[in-house]
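queue> pop job 88
queue> type: inverse folding (structure -> sequence)
queue> payload:
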C-alpha cells in the first residue's frame, strides 16, 4: 500500500488627510519598502532552515542564498554540508550544523551562537519533518510519538529559541512546514496529519503573541512534491496521483520554495497567521 505525504474602503473628497502631526512609524509599525532594481529579496538577512539538506529544504536553502541571505542549515543528514559547500562555491553564504530539532539545549546553544556571530536571527524556516505511515489500528505508540516529537515539538522548540532574538531585534519571519494532509487528512497518516494541523494552529497562535514585536508567523501546506521518496513510487501509482491533481502534475521543490521566499521577505510584512496551500488545487 502506498501512503502519500506532502502549510477596503477608498478615500473620498472628504477623507481626512495626514497632517504634520500624524504618528510616525515605529519598530512595530514598519512601512512597506521598495526594492531597487538589483536588490535581492533577502539581502543581509540571516535565515535558519531546518531540514535543509534535501528536497524542499534544499531548494529553500539554495533559493534564499541566491536572494542574498546567509543560510544556516540545521539537519542531521550529512548532505547538509554538501548543500552549504555548493552555496558557498556559487558565491552565496551558508553554514551547516548537525543538530536535532528535538534537542532543546543544543538548539538554544546553536541559536545563541548564530545571534552572537551574525548579530541577529531574521528568519526561521521550520522544515524538518519525518513520516512513520501506518493505519490507525496498526500504528504503534512509538511511531506516533516519533512523528510528534520531530514535526510538532521540534517546530515548537526551534521557534521558542528563535523568538528571543527576533523579539529583541523587533523583526522576524517564522514560516513552518505544514501539509495539505493537515487540512484534509490522509489514509495511513494519523500521526503526520495531526502534527501538520498542529503546525497551522501554532502559527496562528504565534501571530497573536509575537505580532507586536514585528514578527510574522505563517505556515505552508505543500501537496505532492517531487522528492527522492517520490521517485521510488511505481509508475502506475504515480500516474494516478498526477491525475488526481487539477493541474495534472506534481510540484517541484522550487515551486514550494518560492512560497517560503515570499513569506520570509519584506514583501509579506503584513501577512501573518495564514496557511499558504501550494498543491496544484488539490485542496480547493
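queue> result:
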Amino acid at each position: 500500500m502506498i501512503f502519500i505525504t506532502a502549510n477596503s474602503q477608498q478615500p473620498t473628497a472628504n477623507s481626512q488627510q495626514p497632517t504634520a502631526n500624524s504618528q510616525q512609524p515605529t519598530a512595530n509599525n514598519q512601512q512597506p519598502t521598495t526594492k531597487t532594481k538589483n536588490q535581492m529579496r533577502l539581502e543581509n538577512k540571516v535565515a535558519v532552515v531546518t531540514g535543509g539538506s534535501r528536497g524542499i529544504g534544499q531548494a529553500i536553502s539554495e533559493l534564499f542564498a541566491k536572494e542574498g541571505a546567509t543560510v544556516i542549515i540545521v539537519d542531521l543528514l550529512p548532505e547538509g554540508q554538501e548543500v552549504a559547500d555548493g552555496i558557498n562555491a556559487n558565491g552565496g553564504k551558508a553554514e551547516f550544523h548537525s543538530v536535532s530539532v528535538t534537542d532543546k539545549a543544543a538548539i538554544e546553544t546553536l541559536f545563541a551562537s548564530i545571534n552572537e556571530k551574525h548579530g541577529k536571527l531574521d528568519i526561521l524556516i521550520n522544515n524538518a519533518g519525518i513520516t512513520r505511515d501506518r493505519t490507525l489500528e496498526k500504528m504503534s505508540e512509538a511511531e506516533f510519538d516519533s512523528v510528534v516529537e520531530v514535526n510538532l515539538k521540534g517546530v515548537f522548540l526551534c521557534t521558542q529559541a528563535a523568538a528571543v532574538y527576533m523579539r529583541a531585534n523587533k523583526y522576524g519571519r517564522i514560516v513552518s512546514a505544514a501539509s495539505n494532509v493537515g487540512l484534509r487528512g490522509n489514509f495511513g497518516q494519523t500521526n503526520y496529519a495531526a502534527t501538520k494541523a498542529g503546525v497551522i494552529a501554532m502559527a496562528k497562535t504565534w501571530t497573536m503573541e509575537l505580532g507586536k514585536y514585528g514578527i510574522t508567523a505563517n505556515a505552508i501546506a505543500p501537496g505532492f512534491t517531487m522528492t527522492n521518496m517520490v521517485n521510488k513510487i511505481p509508475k502506475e501509482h504515480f500516474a494516478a496521483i498526477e491525475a488526481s491533481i487539477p493541474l495534472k502534475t506534481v510540484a517541484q521543490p522550487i515551486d514550494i520554495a518560492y512560497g517560503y521566499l515570499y513569506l520570509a521577505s519584506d514583501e509579506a510584512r503584513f501577512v501573518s497567521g495564514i496557511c499558504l496551500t501550494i498543491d496544484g488545487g488539490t485542496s480547493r
